[in-house]
Amino acid sequence: MGQDVRSPRGPRCIALVGPFQSGKTTLLEAILARTGAIRNAGSVDAGTSVGDASPEARRHKMGTGLTAATTDFMGDSYTFLDCPGSIEFAHDMRAAIPAVDAAVVVCEADEKKLPQLQIILRELEDLGIPRFLFLNKIDRANKRIRETLATLQPASRIPLVLRQIPIWNGDLIAGFVDLALERAFVYREHKASEVVALQGGDLDREKEARFSMLEKLADHDDALMEQLLEDITPPRDAIFDDLARELREGLICPVLLGSALRENGVLRLMKALRHESPGVADTAKRLGAASAKDALAYVFKTLHLQHGGKLSLARILAGHLDDGATLQSSSGETGRVSGILSVNGAHDSKRASANAGDTVALGKLDTIKTGDTLSSGKTAPKALVSVEPTPPVLALSLSATDRKDDVKLGQALLRLNEEDPSLTMIHNPRTHDIVLWGQGEMHLRVALERLRERFGVNVKSQPPSIGYQETIRKSITQRGRHKKQSGGHGQFGDVVLEIKPMPRGGGFEFHERVVGGAVPRNYIGAVEEGVVDGLLRGPLGFPVIDVQVTLTDGSYHSVDSSDLAFRTAARIGVSEALPQCQPVLLEPIHVVEIVCPTDATARINAILSGRRGQILGFDTRDGWPGWDRVRAMMPEAEIGELIVELRSATAGAGSFTRAFDRMAEVTGRAADQIIAAHGVAA
């Protein structure tokens, strides 16, 4: 406790995180306005905020990407990273938070958002990031603060410690009491709060709440525990030291109150950040960065500007970085910085250099990607952070509206993926479409809007095709014959094929039992190729699997036979045989594992049953109190928009993973409908 935790610790970087529509962007506006970075706070609804400034964010009135803005407070520089709250855009938050000094978790007293809050707190807890909880919209509170805290506590694995309690005026909150300072403040809209005398019932409530706060601090401070037991008033400086130390060590999560819309509680929050949050040296140590004189930076976001080229948003963790410096990356690439920019929403400004603690945008690092660690040294640094995107849950099949834009579409998708690695692109070799995978319906919608508006590519989209296949139930022996005479050398190939079904999952096997040279050895490879050709599209319209084909006999012509003739004969034989083999349709079945809040499990089970899902079982989610894990077998065709229903049933918190399990037969009306639909599409 000997360290003066209130001394400046260099430029700070703070993440604003929290559930969807909890008020993060509004809080950023309030911070920028109260610290003088902007004249007046903007509004998300009016489309005038510094955060959520992209056309997509303005259109949907929600965060669709990270915003960085810098301000000064009491002589210190602070960069705030306003992170999207929706689980669909969570990768921006997950990539950025490792390099921040602390996080402000913005939430409200809404039980429906508790699962979302738990997901965000778990990310911070697992990374060991110090965090404050800012209980927003306190002016709308209809519960007592203790009830609210009891509601929120299950979302956190460490104690939520009240730093403030509200002052009530009837049913309205008029101000707050700072339990560490032992001072009362009355809110004034868009102005600094006014200090008032602490008296009467407020004084009694303050003493009780302060003692509760001190008790939680004393759990990790024996000296403070002794003082409380002996009824000795602890020194105020010692309390602030404990608050700062226990925050940094991840022992407590302080809770502050306010209303971002009215700018209430903002200066108290800023003072807590100034006095108690750690600095960049602590952050570099947490990330395992070795001390070095070279500049060290972490890239947490990539942007492609329409006219400004590529920008890499980075936190300088150590050293000094000059414009024009050559940097080595942990991925083995090298880049030369062409421009260093201070970040402030959409209004960036050039600067000559950056120092430890600064959060800046680095220009034209074309080979550098999000997640890279950079060094100005002679050798590549080790990667300090590894952030893997969560598995995608929804897909669209894309093609350029104008085929001449195919190359342009490919380049635009690569840039989109650089900006947002949680988007995945897969080329479908059968349909020649690009399948774009994302984290949900809005995630994909925004991706298409960016393709159109930022990259100038119009696309057609549709649900991706399902991987239907077919197989056979009956064996048959079939002759395939190809004979063509057209002057000069003709074409002649003649094969006898024995076609048999194989067990499910057996794949394809080709054998030959030719005797007496009926088919010369040099043509047998061509026969196998022709068989494969014939299996590409069966009588039902789909690839044929789990089939064994044996070449048993045939004939040839010494002049007219060729590889092409035997390949054609084999294809004809297979194509004529398959309709006689009792073809049957197969559909892919996946094992789906859903995680959801326990109170939604019954709804999830109903959704699965309605989508032909076979529930395998469910149990509690390990380490996640109040959550379940549900496992089911589901046809791929039914998984398509499962995430839309799942998110609706879980207030946006549920998700799932899937893995291919097997192909299963589809018969009757369902098979007829699939075959008919495929025929129309073809």
UniProtKB/TrEMBL annotation:
Q: Where are the transmembrane segments?
A: none
Q: Which InterPro entries match?
A: EFG_II, EFG_III, EFG_III/V, EFG_IV, EFG_V, EFG_V-like, EFTu-like_2, P-loop_NTPase
Q: Which domain of life is it from?
A: Bacteria
Q: Which UniProt keywords apply?
A: Elongation factor, GTP-binding, Nucleotide-binding, Protein biosynthesis
GO BP annotations, alphabetical order:
ribosome disassembly
User: What residue stretches are annotated with the Tr-type G domain?
Assistant: 9-285
Say what the protein does: Catalyzes the GTP-dependent ribosomal translocation step during translation elongation. During this step, the ribosome changes from the pre-translocational (PRE) to the post-translocational (POST) state as the newly formed A-site-bound peptidyl-tRNA and P-site-bound deacylated tRNA move to the P and E sites, respectively. Catalyzes the coordinated movement of the two tRNA molecules, the mRNA and conformational changes in the ribosome.
Name this polypeptide is given: Elongation factor G
